[in-house]
Amino acid sequence: MVAKNTLLQIRKELESHVGEKIKLRANRGRRKSYEKVGVLENTYPSIFVVRVEEEHYYQRFSFSYADVLTETVELSLWGGDNRMIALCAEK
Asked: Which tens digit of pLDDT belongs to each residue from 66-87?
């Protein structure tokens, strides 16, 4: 039950930042990781979507809230004064 409440907390935190610039660092296993900067496009009951603009195209990445909880994905937001604000899951 605690994990479910934590996932709900993560979702509510992300919902309040939809449309804002976000930096993500994702670990895809076996030394495969990447960092991207994009916009938190939307949140859904089980996942959230980040839109990343590249030079000639864009990509959408989707992650589950459990990815944030297990620190497979680390998120940071840009504050109003262009400072990075870390979003982290409380364990």
From this structure: 999 988 999 988 765 555 566 6
